[in-house]
Design goal:
4 copies of one chain form a homotetramer. The first copy, chain A, has 15 helices and 18 strands. Chain A has 430 residues and is an alpha/beta fold. The first copy, chain A, has 2 domains: 166 residues, Aspartate Aminotransferase, domain 1 (Alpha-Beta Complex), CATH 3.90.1150; 244 residues, Aspartate Aminotransferase, domain 2 (3-Layer(aba) Sandwich), CATH 3.40.640. In chain A, the strands form 5 sheets. In chain A, strands 1-2-3-16 form a 4-stranded mixed sheet. In chain A, helix 5 packs antiparallel against helix 12 and helix 6 packs parallel to helix 12. Chain A starts with a helix and ends with a helix. In chain A, 66% of the residues are buried. At the A-B interface, helix 2, helix 3, strand 1, helix 5 and strand 4 of A face helix 2, helix 3, strand 1, helix 5 and strand 4 of B. Strand 4 of chain C pairs parallel with strand 1 of chain D.
Amino acid sequence: MSTENIADTTIYTRRESEARSYCRSFDTVFTSASGSEMTDSKGETYIDFLAGCSSLNYGHNDPDMKAALIDHISRDGMSHALDLHTDAKSQFLEAFERLILKPRDMDYKVMMTGPTGTNAVEAAMKLARKVTGRRNIIAFTNAFHGMTMGALSLTGNSSKRGGAGGGLLADVTHMPYDGAFGEGVDTLAQIEMMLSNGSSGIDAPAAFIVEPVQGEGGLNAASTEWMQGIARLAKEHGALLIVDDIQAGCGRTGTFFSFEKMGIEPDLIPMAKSFSGMGLPFAALLIKPKHDIWKPAEHNGTFRGNTHAFVTARVAIEKFWADDTFQQMLGEKAMMLTSGLQAIAEEVPGASLKGRGLMQGIDVGSGELASEICARAFEMGLIIETSGAEDEVVKVLAPLTTPNQLFRKGLDILLDATRATVAGHRLAAQ
Amino acid sequence: MSTENIADTTIYTRRESEARSYCRSFDTVFTSASGSEMTDSKGETYIDFLAGCSSLNYGHNDPDMKAALIDHISRDGMSHALDLHTDAKSQFLEAFERLILKPRDMDYKVMMTGPTGTNAVEAAMKLARKVTGRRNIIAFTNAFHGMTMGALSLTGNSSKRGGAGGGLLADVTHMPYDGAFGEGVDTLAQIEMMLSNGSSGIDAPAAFIVEPVQGEGGLNAASTEWMQGIARLAKEHGALLIVDDIQAGCGRTGTFFSFEKMGIEPDLIPMAKSFSGMGLPFAALLIKPKHDIWKPAEHNGTFRGNTHAFVTARVAIEKFWADDTFQQMLGEKAMMLTSGLQAIAEEVPGASLKGRGLMQGIDVGSGELASEICARAFEMGLIIETSGAEDEVVKVLAPLTTPNQLFRKGLDILLDATRATVAGHRLAAQ
Amino acid sequence: MSTENIADTTIYTRRESEARSYCRSFDTVFTSASGSEMTDSKGETYIDFLAGCSSLNYGHNDPDMKAALIDHISRDGMSHALDLHTDAKSQFLEAFERLILKPRDMDYKVMMTGPTGTNAVEAAMKLARKVTGRRNIIAFTNAFHGMTMGALSLTGNSSKRGGAGGGLLADVTHMPYDGAFGEGVDTLAQIEMMLSNGSSGIDAPAAFIVEPVQGEGGLNAASTEWMQGIARLAKEHGALLIVDDIQAGCGRTGTFFSFEKMGIEPDLIPMAKSFSGMGLPFAALLIKPKHDIWKPAEHNGTFRGNTHAFVTARVAIEKFWADDTFQQMLGEKAMMLTSGLQAIAEEVPGASLKGRGLMQGIDVGSGELASEICARAFEMGLIIETSGAEDEVVKVLAPLTTPNQLFRKGLDILLDATRATVAGHRLAAQ
Amino acid sequence: MSTENIADTTIYTRRESEARSYCRSFDTVFTSASGSEMTDSKGETYIDFLAGCSSLNYGHNDPDMKAALIDHISRDGMSHALDLHTDAKSQFLEAFERLILKPRDMDYKVMMTGPTGTNAVEAAMKLARKVTGRRNIIAFTNAFHGMTMGALSLTGNSSKRGGAGGGLLADVTHMPYDGAFGEGVDTLAQIEMMLSNGSSGIDAPAAFIVEPVQGEGGLNAASTEWMQGIARLAKEHGALLIVDDIQAGCGRTGTFFSFEKMGIEPDLIPMAKSFSGMGLPFAALLIKPKHDIWKPAEHNGTFRGNTHAFVTARVAIEKFWADDTFQQMLGEKAMMLTSGLQAIAEEVPGASLKGRGLMQGIDVGSGELASEICARAFEMGLIIETSGAEDEVVKVLAPLTTPNQLFRKGLDILLDATRATVAGHRLAAQ
C-alpha cells in the first residue's frame, strides 16, 4: 500500500460504523508515534495532549516496554492464555505486589477481568451486590464508568444512556458529586440525609462508586473531606466503597492511585487505561481479600489477562514506580501545567481551572468555544480534546513522561489557539 | 527470575482472585507456545485442544503474524490509537472488505467495539433496541453471550447469572434452541405460536440472538432449517437477527462465518475470539448498513480498535482466506475429527457426538466423567476442556492449523484417556 | 332527574375517560337489577349472561344480602373501618372458617388486601418473593391477573401490557398453559425441561401462578393432571403455588374453589369478584399459615376489608354453602349449559366448546363473528360478552342462581342470535 | 352471635393475616359509628380523630348518604355494574361537573379505576408514560402513593418497599420534597440542577408526582412557591404533573382540592379515600382531556366504578359543596385545630406543628413518644394515630364535620394524654 493509499480515508466512510468519533475531529491517518508525539501518513507530527484518554501515561512506544514485548513475542511467549498461569503473569503480579501494594501498605487480590474498564466496573458491581445481598448502587452526577449495560446504568451522560435504546438501566441511584450544586452546598450532608431517612425511597446501597477526579464528566475533583465522607457513609450504611481509578490512576494525579493521600481504603478498585503501560487492552479489579468470594469462573471472559499487557505492565511498574523519582517529577510538572493553564484561562472571560495533578483543564463556559479551540490547536499541531456534560472543558491529558520543553510547546500552542479563537469571536461579535 | 521461581504458583493464591478457573484444571506455568503446542516452565510440552476457547484458530504465534507485529512495534507503529484512523486499521478494513465480505457478497459496516465478545454483543443489543424501538430480545436455552450485564441477561447458565448478585437481567425472553426438548419436538413451531399469540405475554422482540453452534452450551448445532426459520420469524415479527459468531466463526465450522451455507442474512454479527488471528483482544460488530444509525461515540470505549490486533488480523485474512485452500483443508480435517471422535465415543456407553466442523465433541453423559477424562488427558500431555450445562461434553477446539500427525496424536491421547477413565469406573463399579 | 335525563349519555362522552369499555357494547343506562335480569332507563329488561364478569354469581341484589346490608346501614354499622376489628368482620371470618375452610379440610389465613383482585394478586407476588427470597414468577400464556404493574407483568394480553406505556414488567417468565401448543404437545414436560436445565436462562421461580380456568384468556381449562404436575413442579423447585381463583372461584365451576377436586394444595389463593356475594368491592388473599410472615402493615391499603362486603359475604356463605344443595344444583345446570352450547356450536362451522362448569363458551373462530353474535344477542335482550386473545370465544357467565327457565330463555336467544349472524354471513358470502 | 362472642378476638389471631395493623393499636371490636364517634362491642364510645385515614371526612354514616344508599338498595338499584352506564353514575358525573369542576374552572375527564387509591395512581403512571413515551417518574422523599408494585416504586418508606420481597421497583427517581434538607435549602433549585445537567444520570421524566401535604410522610406541607416551581419544571421538561390528592383532597385542607389556591393545573389527579363520601371503596383519576388517550379497556378492572359509592359521592357533593358554607366552616375549624395543637405542643420540649388545614399534627421528636401519647389517648376514649418516617408525628385527621364541642373534647383528651405521657417520662428520667 503506497503512502497515498494510506492517507485515503474512504475505507472508513465505506466500512467503519457511524459510531466512530475521535477520527472525525482529528481527520488524518496516523502511522507512528513515540513518546509524546504522533506522526501521520503525510509526515506531519503532532504533540499528543490526549494520550489515549489517559491510556498512554508513559507515552507511546516506551523503548523498554517495546524491547520487552518484542523479546516476548520473538521467543514465542504466550500471546493468549485464557487465565492460565504464565511466567508473564507471575512476574506482573510479583512486581505489582512488591512495588505498588507493599510500599503503600495495601492488601488486595487482583481479578483479571475482560481487558476493558467497563468490564472491571461490571465485575465490581456484581461483586458488591453478591457481598452485600443488596442491589442499589450509588453513582454520581457526571460520572462515567463505561458503556456495557451494567456500567452504563452508573453513567450520567444522557446521550450515552440513550444509546441503549431503552434497555433497562436500573438499581442505581444518581447522587450529586462534590460541588454539583455549586459552592457552599454540602452535597455530602444531603446524601447522608437521604440515606438516613427511612422514607426517602433510596434503597440501602450495595456500594458507592466514585471517581476521585471525573475524567469524562468535566475534570471535577472531589475534595479529600468529601471522599472521606463518602467512605464513612459507605461504612455506616454497610455498603462497599468502589473507587474507579481507571482514568485518574497510574500516576495521572501525581501518585499511583489518585486517592493515595486521602486516607481512605476502597473495597474495590477497577483499573484499566494506563495499567498496561503501553496502551494495550488490559483491566483488573483490585479486591480487598475478605470480599473475594467469587466462585471459579463466576465472572469470566476470553481475553481476561492479556499476556502481552502483563509484559509491558511489569516494565512500567519496575521502570517508573520502583522509587519516588517519577512521582516527584509529576508534582513539578503538575505545577507547570497549572501555571500554564492559568495564563491561558486569562484569555477567556469567565474561564476557570478544573482538575488536579496532570489531569487539569479549563472550563471555557461553552462546548462550542472549547471545541473550536481544540480544532484550532489541531491545525497548529496539538492533539487535545474536550470534556464535561456540555464539552465545555478543554482537557489536558498529556503523557506524564512528556519532556518539559515539549510540554511547554504544547501549552504555547494551546495558548495561541485560545487567543486566536477568542479574538475571532470578538471580531464576529463586533 | 529463575526457572524455579517461574514455576512457583503461590503468587496466584496470594494475589489472584478466586474467580480464576482454567489454571485450576491445568495447574502449571506456561512460558511459550507455538502452533498447536504449549510449553510450561518445567519444559513439558502439551498438545493444545483448547486453543484459547477458539481464540487461537490459527495456532499460537503464527510466524507471519509475529513478524508483522514485531515489525509494527519496531517501527513505532501505533499501539493505542482510540478510534483514530491508522494505517493498520485502513489495511485491516481493506483486507476484510476485499477477501471476506466481497467474495461472500456481504455488505456490512464494521463497528470497533471494546475488544471483547461481550462488548460486541452489548453493542448489538443496544443497536437492535435503538433500531426497532423495542426492548425484548429473544435468546436461547444454553446460550452464552458474555458476562457484562446486558450480555449476561442473554446467557442461560444459572451459575453465571447468579454471579450478578441479584442485579437485574431483564428485557430478555429465553426460548428453546433447536433440539432443546428432544428429537421430534419442533421448537421453532412453538416459538412461532408464542409470538403469534397476542396473549402469550411475550413482548414483540427487538431481536433474536443465536449461536449457530453453541460453544459453551454443549456444542449444540442448529440445523439449517431451524436457522432459516428463526431468520423468517425475525423478519415477520419486525425483529433483527443477531448471529453471534464469536466462537463458531473464523473458520471453526469449516467456513469463515459459521452460517455461510445456510442462506440467511444476519442484521448484526458480533465477532471476537479468533478475529485478531493471534489471540489478541479484539472484537467487532458487523452491521447491515441500513441499521448503522449510531450517533458518533454513542457506544464507545478506550480500547475499541486494538491496533496490534489490526496488524495480525490483516495477516490472518491474507494468509488463510485469500483463496479456498484453507477452507478445503478444514473440511478434510473435520472428517478426521468426526471419525476420531466416533472411535472414542464407542468406548463410553451411551455417548454421542455433538457439534460440527472443527467444533465437535462427545457427550459422555455426565460432567464428572467428562472432567475426569480431561484431567487424565492433561496428565498425558493434552489440554482439553468440557462444555455444556452440566459440563457433560468433552469438547475439541484444536487450532485449525494443527498438522494432521499432531492432530491424530491428540486424538490418540484422548482415546487412551477415555479408555483409562472408563476402565477405572468399571473397576470401581465391580 | 327525569327519566329522559337519565337516559341521556352525553355526560359520558363529555366526562368519562376513553378507557371505558363495556358501556360501548351495551349502550344504555341501567337503573336496576334483580336476580339475573337488568332493567334500563327505558324500561327494557335484559337477561344477564355476563354477571359482572363472574362478580355476581349469586345474582343481582339477592334479597337476603340486601336485607342484611340495609339492616347494617340502618343501625349505623361500620361502613369504613380500615383493618380494625368489627362485628361484621368477626362474623364473616367465623362463617368462612366454619362453612368453607373446615368442611374442605383447608387451613388458611385470610389477608384483607385492597378490595380488588389485582391487589390480592400483588400481595401474593410480594409474599411469594419474600418467602422464597427469589424474584422470578412463572405465569402462563393467556393469563389475566390484573392491571396494576405487578399483576400486569403476569398478564399475557399484549394490549393490556402495552397500556403500561413501556413501564417495566420484569421478573416474570411466561410459559405455555395446558394445551397452548395444541393437542398432543405436553407443555408440562417442556416446562419441566426448562426448569431442570441449569442453562435454560429461566431463574429459579418464587412461584407459579395459575388460573384453573382462564376466564379472560378464552375459557381454557387445565386438566387435573396438568394442575397436579404444576403443583409437583412447584414443590420440587422450591416455589410457591398461587392459584388465582378470582374468576373461577365462588362456585363458578361447580364447587366453591375451582380446584377442589384436583388434589392440590395451593400455598396462596387470591379471591375477589363474587367473594362479597353482592358485587361489592372485596378481595382477600388466602395464605397457608406457615407462609404468613408479613410484618404488620407491610402490605396495607385504605379500603382493605370492606365492611359492607363482610356483611353480604357472610350471608352468601351461610345461604349457599351451608350444605351441598347449591353445589348439586350447579352440576345439573352445568350439564344444561353444555348441551345448550353444543346445539349452538352446531350452527357455526368449526366451532368448539371451551371451559367447564358454569364457565363455558363457544370458540367461533374469529373475534368479529363472536362480537357480532353478542351484539345481536343484546338487541334481543341478552347481555353476553366475548373472551380470548382474539375475542373469539362467546362466553356464558350467567349468575349461578339463574332459574332454569330464564337460563333456557337466555340460551335460546343466544341460539337465535348465532343463527341470524351465521345466516347473515352466508348471505354476504354468496 | 351474642355480644360476648362479638367481643371475642381469637378469630383474628386464628384466621386473619399477620399483615393486620390498626387493630393491634385499637384492640377492641367496633360495632357501630355515627358522625365522629365509634362504639365498640362493650358499649364504649370513642371520638374518632383518625377518620379512616381521611376516608371519612364527612363522618361515619352521614344520615343523608345513608338514606340515599338504603333507598338505592331497596329499589334494586345496581350494586355491581362493571363500567356500564347507570343512573347512579350519570348523576354522580353531573354533580361532579356542575358543583366541583365548573365553579373551579377546571376541565377534566373522570377515569373510573379500580376503587383504591393505589389503582388510580397506577393508572396515572401508565398514562403519563404513554403520553410522553418516557419511563422515569419523579417522586419525592416521604411520599406514599400505594402498595401495588407501580405505586410502591414511588413510595419512600423502606419497610413498605421491603415488603415487595425484592421485586423490581424501577423507573422512578426519588427527589427531596420541600424542606427535606432543612430550612434554607432550596430543594427546587437542586432538582432543577439535576434535570438541567445532561450528565446527571436522571432520565428525562414522564411525570412528577407530588402530594401537596404528605399524609403518611409526616404531614409535610409544600409551599405554594415550591408547588408552582414543580409545575414549572414539569412543563419545561415535557413532563406531566400528577397531584396525588387522595388524602389531602375532599376538603381536608380547607378546599375541595388541596391545591386550589396554588395557581397550578395538574395534568392528572388521583382521587380516593373520602371521594365516596361514606368511606366506600371508590377511586378515580382526573385527566386533562388532551391526555385522555386511553384505548377502551386499556386499563380496566372488575370493580371500577362502585355504584353504591356513586350514590353516596353524589350526596356528599350536593350536601357539602353546593355553596361555600362548608368551606368557610373548615377555615374556622382549622384555626381551632392550630391553636389547640399549639397548646399541646408546648407540653413537649422541642415539639413543632406540621401540616395545614384540618390535616395537622405535632412532631414530638420520636416515634416512641408519639405512639405512647396515642395509646394513652385511646385509653381515654380518643382514636388517633401517628405518621412520619419514624412515626414521630401525632396526626389529627378528625372528620371535617365534627361538631366544635366534640372537636374540643378530643383536643382536650389529646392534651391530657400528652401531659400524662410527658410527665411519665420526666418521672422515669429522674
